[in-house]
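Researcher: Go.
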Amino acid sequence: MSHKEAARLGDLVRAAALRLESAGIDGAAREARLLLAHVTGFSTARLGAELGEAATPRVVNQFEAAVARRCAREPMSHIIGKRLFFNHEFSVGPDVLDPRPETETLVLAALERPWRRVLDLGTGSGAILLSLLAERGQATGIGTDLSPSALGVAHGNAARLGLAERCEFIESDWFRGVTGSFDLIVSNPPYIAEAEMAVLAPELSFEPRMALSDGGDGLSAYRAICGDAQPHLTPGGWLMLEIGWAQGQDVSAAMEQAGLEDVRILRDLDGRDRVVEGRLPE
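Model: Structure:
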C-alpha cells in the first residue's frame, strides 16, 4: 500500500490489536474492534461488513488516540463512556467505580426479596439502584454518595433510563444524611485493603480511590454500615452488601453483632463469596 493510499478499517483493527496485545491487554482483537466501532459509530455487528472500507482522516486520528489511551491501561469503559450492566448501558467515567459483572450477584439476590423502598449507599454511577428500580415498576429509592461528581453521573443515568421520578440522590457519608426506613438497603462499599492496592490491575488507577479502598483493612465501611443499619430498616427488611472474596466471615459477624438474623453468604458465578445478606427481625 502506498503512503498516499488510505488505510482500510480492517488494517487499523489489525495494527491496533498487535499494539494492544503488546501492552498486555487480554482479548486485544476484540477490544480493537470495540474501539473502532466507538469511533466510527458502527455497531460491532455492522463493523464486520465495513472493514474493507477506507478510513477517513477523522477516524484514523480518533482511533489512534483511543488505542493509545487503552495501551496506557485506561479502562475501556472510560474511553467509550459507557458500561453494560444488568441489561442496561450506564454512563461511566473517572468519577465513578466501573460496574463489574460480579456485582450483578447483589442485584439478583435483592430481586428475590419483597421490597418497595430501597437505599443504595455509595451509589456511584447508580448502576445497582437503577437496575433494581427498572425491575420493580412500583418501587422507589435513594442513592447516596460522598462525591458530588458521582451523583451527577447517577442523575444522568437515571434520566436516560426514565427512572428519575422514582429515585433521589443525596450527598451523604453512609447514613448521615438519610432519614426514614427502607425495606432493602444495598451497598458495594470500598473493600480493598490499602496493603493490596499496589498489586492491583493498572486500570484501577483510573477509578476513584475512595470507591475502591477505605485506606485501612478494607472492613471499616462494613462496620459503619452494619452498626447504623437497624434504625433505617423496616421490620423484616434486608441488608445486602457486596464483599471481597475473603471477607464473608467478618461481614457476617458484623451483621449478627448488629442484631440481624438469617445471615448468609452468597457466591457469584465464579464460586467466590460475593454478597452477605441479613434480615432485621420483625
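Model: Strands lie at 82-85, 88-91, 117-121, 140-145, 167-171, 182-187, 233-242, 261-267, 273-279.
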